[in-house]
Design a protein that fits this description.
Layout: E1 7-10, H1 13-18, H2 22-29, E2 37-40, H3 47-56, E3 75-81, H4 87-97, E4 103-107, H5 110-122, E5 128-130, H6 136-147, E6 153-157, H7 158-161, E7 171-174, H8 181-188, E8 198-204, H9 209-219, E9 224-225, H10 230-238, H11 247-268
Parallel strand pairs: 1-2, 3-8, 3-9, 4-6, 4-7, 5-6, 7-8
Length: 269
């Protein structure tokens, strides 16, 4: 009976709001005793979350645990400026280059997740998806396949991947930039756990640069840019089954480009 409840715990409150459970929460509150202890946990506190928290908690005490650096120190962050329609080529290159690695790819919508999967299917890359249209049994099967390494490429939406434990993720790929800066932290936090180092790649199209600026402002630092030269960019798009172009070479080309630019500046002086 709800009138006997002494303690109410709301965990992952921001996640519940994302899933549209705010009405269910408020309806439930009407049937609970006013004299109770309420514990409210949320990874992020935006104005909507704050309003909800203060509407259901009496005499609230706020405890905030927030590290100076919101992202894990063992994660290396890189951004590559890639046209929206070309992102699939760079993802394919990464998967083929890192055949034994677990790669978690984030997209904005469930439709987008299935489209990226189809793009990988067309080039013979096995992948699985996780999003809101998946039944619970399907989600469990997906997670088992990814955790055991049976399938090494998981394409997920932000909402579907919240609150689940995914060990030993080697790469996180922001295929689409998140609409909310906090979600970037949630995404990249899937790698670089424990003693393991991780790498987070962000594929940023021209239309997403404002979102990237917001993320960098939130982080308080710039994300290292991997500037891909035109000839390398073209090779990535057309390599198909060629093995002569690796992610390492793309990064090396960037380092060479930066070095050449500095060298030219010194000459001008």
């Amino acid at each position: 009976r709800t009138n006997r409840i002494h303690t109410l715990v709301l965990d992952e409150a921001d996640h519940m709001l994302d899933l549209g459970f705010i009405k269910d929460i408020t309806d439930m509150m009407r049937h609970l005793p006013k004299k109770r202890q309420t514990l409210f946990f949320s990874a992020t506190i935006n104005p909507i979350i704050k309003k909800l928290a203060y509407s259901i908690v009496n005499n609230p005490i706020k405890i905030e645990i927030s590290p100076k650096d919101p992202v894990a120190k063992k994660v290396d962050h890189y951004v590559m400026y890639v046209e929206m329609d070309d992102k699939r080529f760079f993802l394919e290159r990464l998967v083929r280059e890192e055949e034994e690695a677990k790669i978690l790819v984030f997209v904005r919508t469930k439709v987008r997740a299935e489209r990226v999967k189809k793009a990988m299917d067309r080039v013979g890359v096995e992948s699985i998806t996780m999003h809101g249209d998946k039944a619970q049994s399907d989600r469990l099967n997906v997670m088992e396949a990814f955790k055991t390494g049976k399938v090494k490429l998981l394409i997920a939406t932000d909402v579907s991947a919240r609150g689940i434990d995914i060990p030993n993720v080697d790469f996180v790929v922001n295929y689409d930039l998140p609409d909310y800066t906090e979600n970037y932290v949630h995404r990249v936090g899937r790698t670089g756990r424990g003693d393991q180092r991780g790498i987070a790649y962000t594929f940023c199209s021209a239309g997403e640069k404002d979102l990237l600026d917001e993320i960098q402002s939130f982080l308080g630092k710039q994300i290292k840019v991997l500037e891909v030269q035109n000839d390398v960019y073209t090779e990535v798009k057309t390599f198909n089954d060629m093995d002569n172009l690796s992610i390492d070479r793309i990064i090396v080309d960037l380092d060479k480009l930066v070095y050449d630019k500095k060298k030219k500046k010194r000459r001008k002086k």
